[in-house]
Design brief:
The protein has helices at about 5-30, 35-60, 75-95, 100-120, 125-155, 160-185, 200-220, 225-235, and strands at about 65-70, 70-75. It has about 240 residues and is mainly α. Bound molecules: retinal (RET). Retinal binds near residues 85, 114, 137, 138 and 182.
Length: about 240
């Protein structure tokens, strides 16, 4: 059992606070918004950080942690990512004005990536199988990246200049930050390779999670012009 004062618990409490503050900030930013299309971005983004705050709370308090084959596994990460990564992609897809098939493909690949990653974290058949699951999950991730840079980017290019520019910034942020997750996983404790210990791994995931959720949310929601332009083009298409 992890002691309540362990360094990773402190990091997880900071993560909880960061996600909670991000949630409050996004609620404040969206307060009084009456345009339904714009409300959609606020609702999605508020849920992303709210879910993460709960997940971090569960990990910090020890509930989100189990022992698998002598390894300490934070299962709550995967519960968080299972819901929040599709929501992040939905934000990006709405910004791009993506069609339903593209959205479904992105979310399908994403869910497959997280579920197979979870299988790797829980596998008890030995390190080779854990790493094999990681490889399968990476396969889904590479397909996801392909759709982000091809189909979704082509659809975003049809949007107005401001929207297309914010889309590019967020898409690049996603590509860079999300790519770090499988790297942290494989060099960390889940793979059993353990080039970095649990405390370092917890800190790396916390920084990535805060940037990928709170940082992403601020970039998306800070520009009223961009949200105006998206809701304007959606209204024109109706
Ligand atoms: C795992 C391990 C198996 C291989 C791959 C992974 C990818 C995870 C990703 C997670 C993204 C999380 C985000 C959270 C938001 O805060 C499951 C680590 C490919 C890409 C963006």
């Amino acid at each position: 059992m992890v002691q309540p004062t362990s360094p990773q618990d402190l990091i997880l409490w900071i993560g909880t606070l960061g996600m909670a503050l991000g949630t409050l900030a996004f609620i404040a930013m969206g307060w009084g918004e009456t345009d339904e299309q714009k409300q959609e971005f606020y609702i999605i983004t508020i849920f992303i950080t709210a879910i993460a705050a709960v997940s971090y709370f569960s990990m910090a308090s020890g509930y989100g942690l189990i022992e698998v084959e002598g390894l300490e596994i934070y299962w709550a990460r995967y519960a968080d990512w299972l819901f929040t990564t599709p929501l992040l992609l939905l934000d990006l897809a709405l910004l791009a004005g993506a069609d339903r098939n593209t959205i479904a493909t992105l979310i399908g690949l994403d869910v497959a990536m997280i579920v197979t990653g979870l299988a790797g974290a829980l596998a008890t058949e030995g390190a080779a199988y854990r790493i094999a699951w990681w490889g399968i999950s990476c396969g889904f991730f590479i397909a996801l990246l392909y759709f982000l840079v091809s189909t979704l980017s082509q659809q975003a290019a049809k949007q107005s200049g401001d929207v297309a520019a914010t889309f590019s910034t967020l898409r690049n942020l996603v590509i860079v930050l999300w790519t770090a997750y499988p790297i942290v996983w494989i060099i960390g404790t889940e793979s059993t390779l353990e080039y970095v210990g649990l405390t370092t791994e917890t800190a790396l995931f916390a920084v990535l999670d805060l940037a990928a959720k709170v940082g992403f949310g601020f970039i998306l929601l800070r520009s009223r012009n961009v949200l105006d332009a998206v809701s304007g083009s959606a209204a024109a298409a109706d």
